[in-house]
Amino acid sequence: MNQSDNLVNLLEKKEIVKVCGAYDAMSAKLVETHGFDAVWAGSFAISAIHNVPDASILTMTEFFDAASNMVQSCQIPIIADCDTGYGDANNVRHIVKKYENAGIAGICIEDKTFPKQNSLLKNGNNQLLSEKDFVAKILAANEAKQNKSFSIIARVEALISGIGMDEALKRAYAYEKAGADLILIHSKKISPEEIFEFSESWKGSSPLVAIPTTYYSVKMDELISHNIKMVIYANQTLRAAHKALTNLLTKMKDANNMDKIQNEMSSMDEIFKLQEMFDIKSQEKDIEEKLRKLGYIS
Ligand code: SPV
Ligand code: MG
Fold first, then answer.
1. 230 FRET partner, CA 20 to 30 A, in 17, 62, 172, 297?
2. Catalytic positions, written as ranges
3. Which residues on neighbouring strands pair with residue 107, listed in sequence order?
4. pLDDT tens digits, residue range 176-217?
5. Rounded CA gap, 226 and 224, in Å?
6. Dihedral sign from CA coordinates of 62, 66, 72, 76
7. Which of 96, 125, 123 is nearest to 113 (CA)?
8. What is the pLDDT of residue 128?
C-alpha cells in the first residue's frame, strides 16, 4: 500500500491522527520510531536548518529534497508543507505531480500571498490571497493528482490574518467544494477557543486539522471531542534540537575534558542503529557469499 492510501486509512481508523514535525531524514526517522502516525515536513523547521527565515526564501526544490529524503528513510506517510504552493495554480499543478511521484502522502498549501511569512511571527505579514485565486490552486491540485488518496490539505489563514470566523468558514467551504481533502484551520491564539468555535460550526465533510503550537495546553481528548481529526506538532523537534545543541555547546566551550557532557549525547551505537550501520556487516557477508558461489572467492 502506498503512503497516500496509508494516510487515508489512518484518518478512517483512528480517532485522531498524530503527526509530528521533522526537519531532515534523521528527525523524520525518530518521529517514526517514537510511534507517530505521520511526519510533517514543515517550512519553518526546514528553513531553520538552512538558517534562513521562514518567508518563502528557500525554493520548492529545497523543500522537495528535504521531504523526499524523509520518504527514503521512513515507512510512515510524509505530509509536505508547501507554503503557498510556490506560485499560482500552474505551480501547484506541477508540485502535485512531483510530490506524488516521489511517494509523499500529501501536501498542504495555505491561502496567503507569496512571499509568505511564518504565521506565528509577531506583526508578520499575513495577507490573504483572494478566495478565487486559492480555489484555482485547489482545483489545479485536484486535477493533477493521479491517486485520489493523495491528500490535498487546504490551510485556512483567516484567523491568523485577523479577518474573522465568518471568512474562515466561508473559505473552508469554498476549498472543500473545490476538492480539498482536509481543512487545516490555523490559529495563533494561546487558547484553543477559536479553533473549537470553528470546528463546532463546521458542517463540511472534510476532516479538520489543527497545529497547537501557541495553544499547547490543549488536551488530546479536547481536540478529539471538538472534531479535530489530525493534530500536527509542527516544530517541537526543531526547537528541542536547538536547545539541546545550545546547552551542549555552552558546556563544551569551557570544559577541560568531555566527561561532563557524555550523558547529554546519544551514544555512537544509538546513531549506528538509526542509520542501519550494523546492517552493513551482514550485507557484506551476503555479497561475499554470492561472490563465492560465482567463483570469485575460493
Ligand atoms: C510550519 O511548521 O512550517 C508551519 C506551521 O507552517 S506554523 O509555523 O505555525 O506556521
Ligand atoms: Mg510552514
1. 62
2. 54
3. 80, 152
4. 999 999 999 999 999 999 999 999 999 999 999 999 999 999
5. 5
6. negative
7. 125
8. 98
Can you spell out the DSSP letters for 71-106? HHH-SS-EEEE-TT-SSSHHHHHHHHHHHHHTT--E
In contact, 241 and 254? CB cutoff 8 Å: no
For ligand 1, atom 7, which residue shows the shortest CA distance? 119
235 CA to centre of ligand 1 in angstroms:
7
**What are the backbone dihedrals phi and psi of residue 30, each rounded to the nearest 5 degrees, phi first?**
-65, -40
Cell reading at 4: 497516500
Which residues form the pocket of ligand 1, taking CB atoms under 6 Å from any ligand atom? 21, 42-44, 81, 118-120, 211, 213, 234-235
Cis peptide before 77 (omega within 30 of 0): no
**What CATH superfamily classification does 3-234 receive?**
Phosphoenolpyruvate-binding domains (3.20.20.60)
Strand duo 228-233 + 208-210: pairing = parallel
The answer to whether residues 89 and 43 touch, using CB atoms and an 8 Å cutoff, is no
Q: How far is CA 275 from the centre of its chain?
A: 21
Domain residue spans of the chain: 3-234, 266-298
Average pLDDT over residues 40-47: 98
CA of 216 to the centre of ligand 1 (A): 14
**Cβ-based neighbour number of residue 200 at 10 Å:** 10
Percent over 70 (pLDDT), the chain: 100
Mean pLDDT over 213-224 rounds to: 98
Of the pLDDT bands very low, low, confident and very high (cuts 50, 70, 90), residue 1 is confident
pLDDT confidence tier of residue 158, bands split at 50, 70 and 90: very high
The pLDDT tens digits for 235-263 are 999 999 999 999 999 999 999 999 989 99
